[in-house]
Amino acid sequence: MSYVIPAASNDLGLTPKDKAMLQSACFAGMMISGFFWGSISDTFGRKKLMIIGFLLSGTLNVLAGVFPILSLMIVFKFLSGFIYCGPSSIFAAYLSEVFLKKWRNIAVLSMGMYCAIGLIFLTGLAMLLIPMKVPSQIPFKSWQLFQMASSLPSLISGIGCIFFVESPKFMAEKGNHEEALKVCRTIYSINTRKPRNDYPIRKLKGINRKSKDRSNLSKFLEIFKPPFINKAFIVFLIHIGAFGLFNILRLWIPEIFSLVSSSNLNPEEGLCSLLQEGNLARSNFTSEQLKNEEIYVKMILVYFGGFIGYICFLLLVSFIGMKIMEFACFLVAGINSLIIPLISADYVTITMISISLTLYNICIFCNINIMVNIFPTRIRATSLTVLMLVARAGTFFFNFVFANLIYNYCQFFFYGFAFYSLVMAGLTLLIPQKPIEDKTLVIVNSSKLNEAASSKASPNSARNAVL
């Protein structure tokens, strides 16, 4: 919606409150569904829910573009967020369960890099579709076509998940050892291009009973009890800040760039002065005048900067350490936010915003990786869903605050960014790093299961994996 709103504001007659509603509808749906998605995944598995979730979310996004009616768009975006909350959180848990332990951190953290690639693709799609003149024979405006086309990644993801295997760790946790072994044979065959029968492990040994399935509510509430809550609370609090600040910037950058381009003031006046004057000047513009291709070029540069920054992060994190890296990212982001209202808008619009987005994005995936490592498999998806639930609740709140401050009091909002970032930097020093001991399940040498499925599996490796 961040690209749709500037182009559709005149067509739909959007007020600041309407814009905030459109931006927040998706997050509101995610907040409500976050109570049960993770626990459902921890009960029924990862693959099926990812397929259904991605396909349904994409379909609802198409419907949001078909009907250019504000109330219907809000409803469809809400439903899309309600569905999308599941697969987006479950996918992180899935990645952590199909990779070797030594590659697990990089696999989860690399999601941020692909997120940056997706944002570049989305911006390019907006630059291609939104400014174009739609033939009169087509009953849609250009921003509607973009809204429908932006559902493609979700639909493609759903189709792609059909070819995934189920998580072998999840199957083993549920007591389905034979099915877990079949999945490992499939992974082994794909990785080594050898027959499945060459897989060196023949039998999985472990507790010969299935774990008891509990209600979704009991799994959800377990996150807020010892020993989990003591270590998870700090990560939850940090994630609210990282996720909220990242998404507020990401969602409102096109609007900021549109206002800056609408202003007649000198950029030396500062970003906040340009936003206030641009908002007044834009009310006299037509919808076609608001479709400025320069905005999309700037957005691509912002996200490309984020992509480069994330590659640097992946190269450095193993040497510096995740905790120190996250502390440094919050600290630099806070200083950066403090400077934004004080300098020329020429520097802010690309360089400074790109730096802030990249740093907050790194912090998001550092926290996700920490949660993956802290929580055991049986409630891992639930813990990630709760993490994203509280983060999206923060985004929902920040979005309405931003919508009311950005036009007339934007300097105070960026100062708030700076203060919150510095507080989060301090909290990162308290982040736990050791996994929580889960005494309800005994898992011994479970890494052998994944190691044997890798391309480096030795023919002489143990024939039995003890779970």
Keywords:
467 residues, mainly alpha, disordered C terminus
Describe the structure.
There is one protein chain. Helix content is 72%, strand content 1%. A two-stranded parallel sheet has the order 1-2. With 467 residues, the chain is mainly α. The chain is globular, with a radius of gyration of 23 Å. α13 packs antiparallel against α17. It is built from 20 helices and two strands. The relative contact order is 0.16.
Distance between the termini: 46 Å
Q: What is the gyration radius calculated from CA atoms?
A: 23 Å
Helix- and strand-based class? mainly alpha
* Uncertain stretches of 5 or more adjacent residues: 207-211, 439-449, 455-467
Principal-axis shape equals globular
Biggest β-sheet: strands ordered side by side in the sheet: 1-2
Query: Roughly what is the average pLDDT, rounded to an integer?
Result: 77
Helix content: over 70%
Main β-sheet description: 2 strands, parallel
Tally of alpha and pi helices: 20
Q: Work out the strand percent.
A: under 5%
Topology pattern, helix = H, strand = E = HHHHHHHHHHHEHHHHHHHHHE
